[in-house]
C-alpha cells in the first residue's frame, strides 16, 4: 500500500431490500447515501425504493446527489422500483444487473444485507482478485454487522484458502469516511504476481 489515492466518481452500493431490525441500519444507509452526495460521488445501486436500498437512495437524493438504479424486469414490481432516480435502468436478469453495476462504478461498498448482498460483494472481490477489474471493495461495518464475516475471512487466510496478498481485497471500516479513505489507497495485486505460484 502506498500514498497514492484514487478519486471515485461513482460508487456501487450493495445492500438489503430489508431494513433489518430497529432503525439504526436504515439510518446508516441514509447517512451513507448522503455522504456520497455531499462529496460529489454518484451512487449506483439496485434500483429499489424499500429497505436499505430505498434508504441509501433517499439519503443521496436529499443531498442533491446523482443516483443510478439497475433492476431486473422480474424484480421491478416485487422490489417496488424507485421512480425518482437520476436514471433507472431495467435489465433482463440478475447477471445483467450485476454486470452493469460493476461497469458503471469505480468502487464497491456493501452495507448490511442478506444473501444477495453477500453474493454480490464476493463476486466483485473475486473479479478483483482475477484482475477482471481493478476496483476496490469494502464492507461498511455498521454496529459490528460484519464482525463475524471479517473474522471468518481472517480465518480463511490463516487456513490457506485466501492468500495474504488478497486478504486486503475486502476491506472494512465502521464509517464511510474511513472506508472510502481505505479504498482510495488500496493497491490491487497484478495477477502475474501470484497466479503461477503454489
From TrEMBL:
Q: Which GO terms describe its biological process?
A: cytokinin biosynthetic process
Q: Superkingdom, according to UniProt?
A: Bacteria
Reactions catalysed according to its record: AMP + H2O = D-ribose 5-phosphate + adenine
Top class in the EC scheme: hydrolase
**One CC-aspect GO term:** cytosol
| InterPro entries on file | LOG, LOG_fam
What is the protein named? Cytokinin riboside 5'-monophosphate phosphoribohydrolase
